[in-house]
Write a structure and sequence with these properties.
Helices cover 40% and strands 16% of the residues. The chain is built from 10 helices and 11 strands. A 7-stranded parallel sheet has the order 3-2-1-4-5-6-10, with helices on both faces. The N and C termini lie far apart (53 Å). This is 3-beta hydroxysteroid dehydrogenase/isomerase. One of its GO terms (molecular function) is oxidoreductase activity, acting on the CH-OH group of donors, NAD or NADP as acceptor. Keywords: NADP, Oxidoreductase. It holds the Pfam family 3Beta_HSD.
Length: 285
């Protein structure tokens, strides 16, 4: 990786753990478009398989791979050695895991999400990484039954979580925050809510499935009860991650060891949001 540094004396090397996840892909694109980052894309696949979107004229990933601006590392977060290999020599680690990483299997989820974070933190400390930015979820403060109005970062973790994933993410987030300012590592965590946008393979497909099914009318009656939710466009999440990294370097006291909710700041009715998305896709109410 030393050869890549000669591309630009001003370039910084970062690692995007989970670089082929929904948020990870968007983050990689934005980092490459900034032009001052050498990006290591790290994910669980044995090798990098580019999608058709990666070959588009305006996609920076394929050209970056050919010039050395980007590279790929196979990483299993359950194996600290593979993490160390990917992050050694970099200055920043963005950690974005996959929401499908546990599928309600507590043991599997624990080994990937919680033990994985422990391994990432340990590898960062050993490799003298300067900054670690973790993508958490707003659901760590939501119990699934009590509404939250105008919530902020003073909210405590939920005492009862709505699913296994949220509980494990809360544990992982706490470990990241506790690791702040140990062995020179600065950390922070972001909590986006209901991420959507191009490349979404969870929220959008589920809406389309309902729109195609005979359950659509029933779902409308259930979803039009006035409930409001926060949503976050995926590019806003990627932008927030980059801002968090910059803030850790310049406003350490305000940001390090802290958590931040990231949303579009436009709470909207769940059914109304769904209708807007589906109408944009040609499914009319």
């Amino acid at each position: 990786m030393e050869d890549m540094a000669v591309l630009d004396d001003q370039s910084k090397t970062c690692v995007v753990l989970g670089g082929r996840t929904f948020v990870g892909r968007c983050l990689v694109m934005r980092l490459l478009m900034l032009g001052n980052w050498i990006v290591r894309v790290a994910d669980s696949a044995q090798s990098l398989r580019l999608d058709p979107s990666d070959y588009k004229y305006d996609s920076p990933l394929n050209p970056a791979l050919s010039t050395g601006r980007a590279s790929y590392f196979h990483v299993d977060v359950r194996n600290k050695q593979s993490i160390t290999k990917a992050i050694e020599g970099s200055s920043v680690v963005f950690y974005v895991d996959d929401a499908d990483s546990c599928n309600n299997d507590f043991f599997l989820g624990y080994t990937i999400i919680v033990q994985g974070v422990k391994n990432v933190i340990g590898a960062c400390r050993e490799c003298k990484i300067k900054r670690l930015i973790y993508t958490s979820t707003a659901d760590v403060v939501f119990d699934g039954s009590h509404d939250i109005h105008n919530g902020n970062e003073t909210l405590l973790y939920a005492t009862k979580f709505k699913n296994v994933y949220s509980e494990l993410k809360a544990q992982a987030e706490a470990l990241v925050l506790l690791a702040n300012d140990i062995d020179g590592l600065l950390t922070c965590a972001l909590r986006p809510s209901n991420i959507f946008g191009p490349g979404d393979k969870q929220l959008l497909p589920s809406l389309v499935d309902v729109a195609k099914s005979s359950w659509a009318k029933v779902w409308k009656r259930i979803g039009s009860d006035g409930s409001m939710s926060d949503y976050t466009y995926v590019e806003n999440v990627a932008h927030a991650l980059i801002c968090a990294e910059a803030a850790l370097g310049t406003r350490m006291v305000i940001v390090s060891g802290k958590v931040f909710f990231i949303t579009n700041l436009e709470p909207v009715g769940s059914w109304e949001f769904s209708l807007r998305i589906l109408e944009g896709l040609g499914y009319y109410r």
